[in-house]
Amino acid sequence: AAYSLVPPGLARDEFRSKLGLVLFKLGSSMEGGTLDWMMFVAADHLNATSSSINIQNPMMLVKLNLKVANRAASLSAFDTASKYLERATQILNDVKEPWKEQYETTLEVFRASTEIKLCMGHFEEGRAEGQILRDHAHSFDDKLPTLIALCKALGREERRREAFDMSISVLRGLAAIPKTNAGLKFKLLKDMFRVRRYFAKHSDEEFLSKPVIADSRLEMTMELLSVAAYQSYSCGALVDHLAIIQRMIILSLKHGFCTHSGFALTGYSLFCNATNDMDGAYRFAHLAREVITRTGARERECVFIFCFAHFVLAWRDSHEKVINLYDSGYKIGMEIGDFENALLNMTAGCHHEFIAGYSLTSLESKFKVLLEKQNMYRLESIQVMTAGQFLPVQYLRGTLELSSDMDELEKFGPGEDTSSEGYRLLFGYLGRLIVGVFFNEDEFALMMALRLHQMQHMEIGFCPESLMMLFSSLALSTAFGKTKKRKWLSLSIKKMRELDRLGKVKGANSWHRCLIMEAHLQAAKGGDLAVIQASYDNAISAATRSGNDHDAALCSQLAAEYFLSRIEQGDNNSSTFSLVTEYLRFARDKYLKWG
């Protein structure tokens, strides 16, 4: 740069200051607005000058740093944005009474700085700046965007109950919901009737013909309602969750829709899905997609993608389509800075690759990258799920040795009372159950299956639901075969029937798993060997035809183990020996292909 030819010191600082001012004036006067590069360079030159340079208009430099920070944030360059905002804050500290004399600009700087720090996971710093803003803001409306950001940050910190309570408190301050919990429950029943009546009488196009909300306060209210709905679901307050999303739909019917209406419709689609109203689930998912598209709400798109793919599409659509959807959700989230939902999509994508039988070698690498990203953004609530999902991959790949880890695996259980504790236990028990079944640790697998059975869990989606039903049934059938305790038989049948019911209602992607469960249950009960062989062969064939070679390998392994047990019981028929060899060879080949 030319200024490097000027000797360091006051002369260089003066030169850079003048150069920065020229670039700022030139960029500001350009037709069509400022040029990004020119304004960034101007800010860098002016920020680099020493304090001995007399800045005649410090607020000009504050506004310049705010402008380039906002532009950097729009490009997801949050670290860069944070540095410009820190400089703006430093200059404001030298301005006399900035909250009085330069209120609007000071409010914007502290609001942007708070949101950027919270987004980057610098929670303590973000809360400190947010508190300064709350102390000096003139009105509740001026505080509202920062209150929303603080609620979201509490959720990312694993303080979801606090986030929910804070959002409810703010919503009551806005008079957006009843002041008591009893009032909220009563409103739920009233809103439920109104929502059902409206959509029974009106077409989708009639709803979509409503205007887009233009009132900024109403839109912020809708955003806060969406935060409350998200946090209530995460901490298991499902009645509150349903009440809030229906309140959002009612507001959309009354005033028009906005970006957050798409979130509410997505939530209502999941409610229909949970109650086995699949026509309703697809209808409201379509409406949600249309609202998101018409409002250009990319910040809602990655949430919609995760919810619709995870809870609805994964049951019936091709694995490739669902995984590609998750990938698009991840990319959108990273582009707009919604790291939590971006990595939630990536997590779900990895888990779907596991259930779909994608290469374990590739999957192990993806899980490692995923955990690094989750740690970087301090997303503990997603990390606890990922750790359980990753566990069977590590043992199947041979990265971890089961013989040396059994004591630690058995010790896994309840820990701190956090909002994600249920997910930590669910995925932790499920990962251990899968390991136990694959590696013939029958007592351990039964223990994990029973712990999962005792858990009260909400709708958890295709992957965990299918895996839990399959491997729980296999563990229970094995236990029945060894002990002949009918309670294990009854539970195994219950799991098999539940997965069969879900498949008939939601989609057939786990139909072959029902056949595997049925074959293993038939073997545990005993009977005609030809019937049992035919049952295993039918399940293996169904898994292979549907492209689930890894499940075919598991079923073949189970068949080999069953017929091997017959040999150990005295069956010396040469055909039984041949069957064991054939099943083991098939399982070996498919497992090698899996990785």
Amount of beta strand? under 5%
**Residue share in helix:** over 70%
Decide which structural class fits the backbone.
mainly alpha
Shape: elongated
Number of helices: 29
Distance between the termini: 54 Å
Mean pLDDT equals 90
**What's the alpha carbon Rg, rounded to whole Å?**
29 Å
Note the quaternary state here.
single chain
* Low-pLDDT regions: none
Main sheet properties: none
Task: Give the H and E element order.
Answer: HHHHHHHHHHHHHHHHHHHHHHHHHHHHH
Strand tally is: 0
Architecture overview:
By secondary structure, the protein is mainly alpha-helical. Helices cover 79% and strands 0% of the residues. The protein contains 29 helices and no strands. Helix 3 packs parallel to helix 6 and helix 6 runs parallel beside helix 8.
SSE blueprint and pairings:
Layout (H helix, E strand, L loop, with lengths): L9 H20 L6 H13 L9 H17 L3 H16 L4 H4 L1 H17 L3 H14 L3 H17 L3 H14 L7 H21 L2 H5 L7 H19 L3 H18 L3 H16 L3 H18 L2 H14 L7 H18 L2 H18 L3 H17 L3 H18 L4 H10 L9 H18 L3 H13 L7 H22 L2 H21 L4 H15 L3 H17 L3 H20 L5 H21 L1
Helix pairs in contact: 1-2, 2-3, 3-4, 3-6, 4-6, 6-7, 6-8, 7-8, 8-9, 8-12, 9-12, 10-13, 12-13, 12-14, 13-14, 14-15, 14-16, 15-16, 16-17, 16-18, 17-18, 18-19, 18-20, 19-20, 20-22, 22-23, 22-24, 23-24, 24-25, 24-26, 25-26, 26-27, 26-28, 27-28, 28-29
